[in-house]
Amino acid sequence: MSSAVVTALPSVFGTAALSDCDVVFSLEGLPGAKQTAPARTLIGEPLPAHSLVLGLASERFRAQVERWADGATETSSSPASRRPQLRVPLGSEAEAPFARAAIGYAYTGRVAAVGVRAVLEVRRQAAYLQIDGCAAACDERLMGLLTASKVRRPRGTVRVAPAPSSAVAELMGCWDLMPYSADDPSFAPILAAAKKALVPHFGDALAVLNTPSLRWQLLQLPAAAVEVLLSSEVFGTDTEDSVLLLLATWMKANHSQTDAKTRERLCRLVRLVHLSRPYLTAVLPALAADYENGAAGSPCAWFPISVAEAGFITDLAATPAVRERAAALVGPGKPLYDTQSPWYRASSRPQCLSKERRTFEWAITEQELREELGRLPERGVNAHAYGSFSGGDLYLRGFEWKVLCHVRHNATCAGCYLDCAMPAAYDMPGSRLGYGSKAAAVGLDARLAVHSWGGGARQDAFVHKFEAWRVTFSAGRLLSPSGYGSSSALRLAQPQPAGGVDVLAGWAAYLRDGRLTGTLTLLSPFC
């Protein structure tokens, strides 16, 4: 081809130079509705085009050009409008820029789109308009973006700062734009790369639950992407409880977007025989009762398991011997239940704490502490303030955890405790797991610390280690809260006064930059 033609072709895109037709974008009518040309809602100005270029690049446009040539297409009586109009019906005005970009590829050979979402939108329009080579070029661009993107997996201290911008992060928010490989086999390599990038991006269940940016991205995922995440053999967790909580968190936000078959498919991916004792004895039975007694499609009846099968799984999980467990799967359980589903998977997920400890920072602002201590006369003899974790709510072993500082009037020491609660994700209308309606005895492997400051250096004024085998917590506030902290954790410089005076006078050693701070370090169960 002449180099002059190659050079000039991109420059005539969207211009009237040598053009002999117009591309007209319009809003597509309702299915089955009849629309006349004047009744169509046009989007923007017509795009000057060249029938030779579009006819060679697109079978769709070629057919329209040929119909015009045969005089089969209705034309306007206005002399200025007699040249061919190639119509492109669209679902919304937002699609127009991407349709223009797809047409532009026929002239330039380039995908004029920035970012994953834009490339996917252009690809969709290119497939619709049958622009030869454009979808393949979009796939090449997407593959380059996915392979070049560096993904941060949260480790160590979890902070509020959002995850760095990346193609993978952008992909999480537009998963629904990707065609299924069965519908578009050419997209299969991109879909495979996206699935491969999904798990490293989210890291593990603890990272998702305790990192605000990842938690938000999880809630935006369609069910198909959540299925990829939960079915992965490399998606780690501290316990399977956190995986079930992750699914409950997503389900509470997306229940209306699912049907019974989708919920069944997602719930089947939780490895129930690896749930901990608190979940087996408190959470799973309640979910089963909600399912049996709740109305079909009710948000509280989202986990499809019977009370009888929940009991069988609890019994099976308590069987320590591998041989006995295997016998149960081929014996009494097989005729009644699908023991080949992941609910009964013998292998557990990778332990995300096997090589690292995770530290979560918490703080109580000076203002919050002052307000609580200032109410001592109103409360009689004590006051308490909850710490806020840097990543928001903290979830470990499938439960929510909070730091609590407690002090009595005239006390010379303040207490520091760790509090456990049932996560709000389970608090559905009508559920037996609603707030305050269910109790569970829980253990935790963790180290709680409160900071003090001396000579400008930070020190640990108080340290308390918790061990999971010591069941010292109660979710539901029905059990005796013994052994989950210390009533004399922080020695005060003077007895705690009531409100009306300087209530923080005894706390000076623990306050820095207007905050009382500390950490909760989650320990590996193998430490």
Walk me through this protein's architecture.
The structure is a single chain. The chain is of the alpha+beta class and 527 residues long. It has 3 domains: 3-141, Potassium Channel Kv1.1, Chain A, CATH 3.30.710.10; 149-344, no CATH class; 358-522, Apoptosis, Tumor Necrosis Factor Receptor Associated Protein 2, Chain A (Sandwich). It has 18 helices and 16 strands. It has helices at residues 3-11, 51-57, 59-69, 96-108, 116-129, 134-148, 167-172, 188-202, 205-210, 212-220, 223-231, 240-254, 260-267, 277-293, 307-317, 322-330, 366-373, 376-379; strands at 21-27, 47-49, 85-90, 358-365, 382-386, 388-389, 394-396, 399-408, 413-421, 440-442, 446-454, 457-466, 473-475, 485-491, 511-512, 515-522. The strands form 4 sheets. Strands 4, 6, 11, 12, 15 and 16 form a 6-stranded antiparallel sheet that branches. β7 and β8 form a beta hairpin. α4 (96-108) crosses α5 and α14 packs antiparallel against α15. The N and C termini lie far apart (70 Å). Residues 151-165 and 477-483 have low confidence and may be disordered. InterPro entries: BACK, SKP1/BTB/POZ_sf. This is BACK domain-containing protein. It holds the Pfam family BACK. Residues 216-283 form the BACK domain.
- How would you describe the shape? elongated
* Record field, number of beta strands: 16
Instruction: Note poorly predicted spans.
Output: 151-165, 477-483
Work out the helix count.
18
For the record, the count of structural domains works out to 3
- Rounded mean pLDDT is 85
Structural class per helix/strand content?
alpha+beta
Fraction of residues in helices?
A: 25-40%
Q: How big is the Rg? A: 31 Å
The share of residues in extended strands comes to 15-25%
Give the distance, in angstroms, between the N- and C-terminal Cα atoms. 70 Å
Largest sheet: 6 strands, antiparallel
InterPro entries: BACK (IPR011705), SKP1/BTB/POZ_sf (IPR011333)
Domain BACK: 216-283
Protein name: BACK domain-containing protein
Organism: Tetrabaena socialis
